[in-house]
Amino acid sequence: MQDDSGLKRLLGFSWVYAGFQSLVGATRGAKWVAENFWRAQEGQKIVDIGCGPGNTAHLLPRGVQYVGFDVSDSYIEHARKKFAHDSSKSFIVGIAEDFAAAPPGQMQNADLVIMNGLLHHLDDDQALTALRLARATLASHGRLVCLEGCFLISQAPLARWILKQDRGQNVRSEQEWKRLVSSVFDNFETHIVTGLLRIPYTQVIIEAQK
Question: Is there a domain that residue 199 lies in?
Answer without folding.
Answer: yes
